[in-house]
Hints:
It is built from six helices and six strands, in the order βααβαβββααβα. The chain is of the alpha+beta class. It has one domain (4-152): ph1033 like fold, CATH 3.10.590.10. A six-stranded mixed beta sheet has the order 2-5-4-3-1-6, sandwiched between helices. It is globular and about 50 Å long. It binds a DNA duplex through residues 8, 10, 32-34, 53-55, 58, 112, 130-135.
Amino acid sequence: MPAYWLFKSEPDSFGFDRLEREGRTEWSGVRNYQARNFMKAMRVGDLGFFYHSSTKEPGIVGIARVTRDAYPDFTARDPKSEYFDPKATDEKPIWEMVDVAFERYLPRFVTLAELREHASLVETMVLLRKGSRLSINPVTKREWGIVLRIAERPAA
DNA sequence: GCCAACGTTGGC
DNA sequence: GCCAACGTTGGC
């Protein structure tokens, strides 16, 4: 039984089109404990919405699939990386990452504003919580289905 | 560019 | 352990 997630990414640094081109990527650079813990809970086969943030029209563009369980994020041990963390060691890597693969585009882009129009999502979806800044969010099966149904309808 | 919300740091 | 200061995220 796969679990559902949401991955935030800035399209200017790593957009969904790039994941499609490259097929798969390492989700490194997460430096938030809550987000890290969500990645530790991920299992191969889990699915996640791919969300574009910090852009003109934020929203969900597609679906990615987890292809590798969490393992130490080596960028934390690389002094040349912008994600270098001097506190990370081989024994205690602190930060972890998963691998994700391109799964498919949604039938159409679903904007953040449109998600907010659905009371049933606003009530529960972590992404829509006031002040939510988590780069990795859990998504319930119910929320997953609602978003898919929205994406299958023509834009309002 | 503004700013609210949040997480982290560090002095005490 | 408290909490003010600071840095970051991310929508608008």
